[in-house]
Amino acid sequence: MRGGILSVFFLVIGVTLLGGLSCLGEHESMDDSFGTEKVKRFRPTHFIFIMVDDQGYGDIGYHGSDIHTPVLDQLAAEGVKLENYYVQPICSPSRSQLMTGRYQIHTGLQHSIIRSRQPLCLPPGIPTLPERLVEAGYATHMVGKWHLGFCRPSCLPTGRGFQSFLGTLTGSGDHFSYRSCDGAEACGFDLHDGDRPAWEMAGNYSTLLVKQILRSHDPHKPLFLYLSLQAAHTPLQVPDHFLHRYDSQGNRVRRHYAAMLSCLDDGVGQVVQELRTSGLYQNTVLIYSSDNGGQPLSGGSNWPLRGGKGTYWEGGIRAVAFVHSPLLKKKGVVSRALIHVSDWYPTLLGLAGAPQSHRGLDGHDVWGTINTHGGGFCQMSPRSFVKGLYKFTSFHTIAHSSAFESPLTTTQCPVPTVMKPTNS
């Protein structure tokens, strides 16, 4: 694989420091209400999906962390916290499930991440979420980390449905220089604008770009913005003014990791402020998700869960997530419904009013579960029901008690009949 894209070695998108949210420069202060909405009339539903990298389950303020995340805490408190939310234990598989609505065993990405020198990418024959949203009339933009392959132009974000892309194509790299290596002998510059290396980009470009996208977007045209941050993935790098907040933290690794998450929190606040200022907020659904559990060796904490990144223990696959939106019928609630990263594909397509075929999909539309939380068993996740140390694995309808099935599309409310330990 020589020349073209791979001669640069890695295409670049950028999520500069900490996934690119500008913690590097001056920015507007954010008040308690995140600003004032300019336009309140009806608009189509906009989607902002923020995926962060390697944030541990215990590394957010509302889970009792010593890390300061006031913006994320407020957004979650005013939305729906997803406390039974699952992803894959490593990066590429989780991101592939978000993009396709299919388990990694159905895309061939179940074995590991896609490495920079591998001629692999997300299978081209599977329609992606941005491709389907473009068909539904959406403008689609991506800022941040791709990590789903770039061995040919059709594998790039702009070849998979995103109308614009700025970010990194590989799994990790220096947050300041964008140098990324796959072994000591294979290093390259990994920051791209579309399909070209963005040599001239530096600093807090990603937050500035996100603000520009939001500022220039026609509020009457639906928007899908995928903000995929490299924070808090190694290398652990952060501006000093965030690091000084944790001077009392004796563990150097934990100190840098915590500062990165505070920087990320600051950047998310700027994005929400711009949503308000641009008149998009009132009809926006914002989803926040980590791609896998935290890496304890790199400062992450998944307490009280066992395990971490790279493992199938709860600490590796149960992730921080919440939904924030003025469109939610019930806000300020905690949902323990079982939800999976593959569910966002059919859920967002459903909200967009896009025609759907569930053929080949593993995800479920869970908007009813999220939006009407607490409405009884029929509004629970279509996946399963977990109670304490046990989970229900089979269902039968009241009308057909002899048939073991999960008829959640019927009007009958399913009644759980078989329970197994959650470690089974």
UniProtKB/TrEMBL annotation:
Q: Which UniProt keywords apply?
A: Calcium, Glycoprotein, Hydrolase, Metal-binding, Signal
From which domain of life does this come? Answer: Eukaryota
Record flagged with keyword Ribonucleoprotein: no
Q: Which CDD domains match?
A: 4-S (cd16029)
**What sequence ranges are listed for the domain Sulfatase N-terminal?**
46-354
Q: Which Pfam families match?
A: Sulfatase
Identify the stretch annotated as signal peptide in this record.
1-23
Name the Gene3D superfamilies on file: Alkaline Phosphatase, subunit A
Needed cofactors, names only, are: Ca(2+)
What is a single molecular function from GO for this protein? metal ion binding
Keyword flag Transferase: no
Q: Matching PANTHER family, A to Z?
A: ARYLSULFATASE (PTHR10342), ARYLSULFATASE I-LIKE (PTHR10342:SF267)
Its family?
Belongs to the sulfatase family.
The molecule here is called Si:dkey-174i8.1
User: What is the originating organism of this protein?
Assistant: Sander lucioperca
